[in-house]
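Hi support team,

I've been running sequence recovery on a batch of backbones for a student project. Most finish fine, but this one hangs at about 90% for roughly twenty minutes before it completes. I'm not sure whether the input is malformed or the queue is just slow. I've pasted the structure tokens below so you can try to reproduce it. Let me know if you need the job ID as well.

Thanks,
M.K.
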């Protein structure tokens, strides 16, 4: 399977469908496009014709000529010590009108700012019973460290635009971003008018959350710096309604490098505590570039009761395990090869009765080199996860 790390478990028909999809659409299996082919085919019940129609419609709606494959994440980031909250607002940082953190006022989902209809691969959908009553809805979430700190060869604009193009193709309802900088923030805001951009800072680098205006109702947001951080790390929390469920979205970038493992474990404990104490009627999704090694989760006391690792909950797909893989991704030009599961997502269900959020698919994106710089969008792969929201049956 030429340079593809996707495991089809001996299913020749599925692999043949991916090959046919790539052949018709002009995608290249050896360039990492087979993952995108698989994504659209799974979304279409492995009907090649329907998958091709959806892909071409998505390209048309996004005004794309080529499919952009996405972003990876950094293993060893440079510690930052300056205080972002005390620095003046730099030129180019997003204002409130451009999607800066809101004050918590309710904000209903607005129509598309671009005036375009959404791509046909709608991420939020509703299935209906024979009586016409909605029984199940879906939403899609992407998390990605877009490596805004890497200014090597002045590739930031091309790499950031590749991330934006991936968002247009995958049409997620929610996006968690890490290592956003003011410059990339401006590119994202102007390139994705269908999304509300909520930033977790305005200086140096920070997290950001994107909400699709037509499918997600933004209620409030909050930023909490970790008390012991020396790298400006925080928890960015956003309260929303999406796909018929109340959601608490928690995006973070935990302390980097093995030298800061002790502080990272403390930060993970704080995040888990926030998950446990979130509103009882909300499902909670926490994630981002957590820089975690498995023993550190054990040191934090393990997963709290009711909290699940979404990768494990999705069947632990081996081709979607390592999000930082220097054996495949050479953006950082490191002299060693290592594979790490730094980027993670965790889920806590709403307590008691009410809708249940169930992951349906977990995969990686961003494995295609960009045509200009011949680098990947990031040193991390991105994660795309589909969820269904199941209404609890009334007895």
């Amino acid at each position: 399977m030429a340079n593809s790390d996707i495991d089809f478990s001996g299913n020749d028909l599925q692999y043949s469908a991916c090959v046919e999809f790539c052949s018709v659409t002009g995608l290249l299996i050896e360039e990492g496009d087979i993952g995108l082919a698989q994504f659209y085919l799974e979304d279409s019940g492995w009907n090649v014709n329907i998958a091709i129609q959806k892909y071409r419609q998505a390209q048309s709606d996004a005004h794309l000529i080529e499919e952009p494959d996405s972003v990876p994440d950094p293993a060893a980031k440079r510690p930052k010590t300056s205080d972002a909250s005390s620095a003046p607002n730099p030129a180019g940082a997003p204002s409130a009108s451009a999607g800066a953190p809101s004050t918590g006022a309710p904000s209903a989902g607005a129509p598309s700012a671009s005036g375009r209809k959404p791509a046909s691969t709608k991420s939020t959908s509703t299935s209906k019973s024979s009586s016409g009553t909605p029984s199940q809805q879906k939403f899609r979430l992407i998390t990605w460290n877009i490596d805004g700190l890497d200014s090597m060869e002045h590739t930031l604009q091309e790499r950031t635009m590749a991330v934006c193009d991936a968002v247009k193709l995958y049409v997620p309802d929610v996006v968690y971003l890490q290592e956003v900088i003011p410059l990339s923030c401006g590119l994202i805001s102007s390139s994705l008018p269908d999304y509300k951009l909520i930033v977790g800072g305005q200086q140096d680098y920070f997290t950001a959350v994107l909400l699709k205006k037509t499918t997600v109702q933004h209620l409030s947001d909050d930023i909490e710096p970790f008390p012991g951080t020396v790298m400006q790390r925080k928890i960015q929390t956003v309260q929303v309604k999406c796909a018929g469920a109340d959601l608490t979205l928690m995006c973070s970038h935990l302390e980097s490098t093995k030298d800061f493992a002790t502080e990272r474990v403390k930060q993970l404990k704080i995040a888990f505590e926030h998950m446990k104490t979130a509103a009882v009627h909300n499902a909670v999704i926490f994630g981002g570039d957590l820089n975690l090694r498995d023993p550190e989760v054990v040191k934090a006391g393990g997963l709290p009761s009711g909290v699940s690792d979404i990768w494990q909950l999705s069947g632990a797909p081996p081709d979607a395990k390592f999000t930082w893989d220097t054996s495949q991704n050479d953006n950082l030009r490191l002299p060693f090869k290592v594979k790490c599961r730094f980027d993670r997502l965790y889920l806590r269900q709403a307590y008691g009765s009410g809708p249940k959020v169930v992951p349906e698919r977990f995969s990686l994106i961003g494995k295609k080199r960009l045509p200009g710089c011949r680098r990947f969008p990031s040193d991390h792969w991105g994660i795309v996860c589909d969820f269904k929201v199941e209404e609890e049956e009334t007895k």
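--
Follow-up from support: It reproduced on our side and the slowdown came from queue contention, not your input. DSSP finds eight helices and 15 strands in the chain. No action needed from you.
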